[in-house]
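> example.struct
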């Protein structure tokens, strides 16, 4: 454990991830919410740019919001990496956040939609050096599930994706997580827990009490 922390660029963030695992609060639209989440040991903030989402921000808004999060968490001696959450078919959004000013605003890119291998190859070119997290919905049919799992494993092996975020599996859990079921999800061995509407008092408004309860359930 000591060697892991010694090699970390950000020891505070490394400790949070080591002790509590990867806890991301997604759908962030306010810097105050991300700061509160960082104080509750969440280790990443997801900012949604997918236009279909009621929590969507613009590419310009991403840069402003990310800078506010950075300033506020830095004042507390913390860091809160931002994940940009996008739909693969919204090429105008992807082009906008590929600009030098925007790419500094986020660390990984989380991609949703019907993503092809060619899409991922193009994203590697468009976002050099950025980690690519692929959100995948797995089928229930055992045969189709096995086929999908083989493809996803191949994407990781070929370096087309750095992480697979899948609802309801041990690689990452997103959607539907609340303070009530967070402990069960963590006990299932999830590599990452993604909180969104389950920690809100209203759409886009993260509730400090629910954030604390969620984090407390995982501790």
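> example.seq
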């Amino acid at each position: 454990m000591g060697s892991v922390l010694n090699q970390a660029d950000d020891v505070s963030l490394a400790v949070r991830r080591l002790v509590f695992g990867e806890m991301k609060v997604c759908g962030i639209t306010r810097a105050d919410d991300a700061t509160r989440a960082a104080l509750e040991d969440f280790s990443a903030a997801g900012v949604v740019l997918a236009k279909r989402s009621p929590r969507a921000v613009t590419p310009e808004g991403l840069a402003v919001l990310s800078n506010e999060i950075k300033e506020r968490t830095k004042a507390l001696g913390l860091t809160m990496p931002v994940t940009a959450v996008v739909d693969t078919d919204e090429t105008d959004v992807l082009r906008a956040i590929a600009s030098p000013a925007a790419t500094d605003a986020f660390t990984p890119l989380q991609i949703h939609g019907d993503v092809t291998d060619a899409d991922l190859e193009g994203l590697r070119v468009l976002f050099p050096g950025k980690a690519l997290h692929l959100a995948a919905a797995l089928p229930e049919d055992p045969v189709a599930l096995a086929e999908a799992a083989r493809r996803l494993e191949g994407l990781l092996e070929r370096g087309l994706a750095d992480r697979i975020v899948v609802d309801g599996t041990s690689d990452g859990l997103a959607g539907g997580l609340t303070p009530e079921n967070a402990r069960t999800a963590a006990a299932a061995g999830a590599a990452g827990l993604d909180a969104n509407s389950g920690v809100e008092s209203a759409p886009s408004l993260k509730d400090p009490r629910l954030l604390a309860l969620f984090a407390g359930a995982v501790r």
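> remarks
Residues 1-8, 12-20, 167-173 have pLDDT under 50 and may be disordered.
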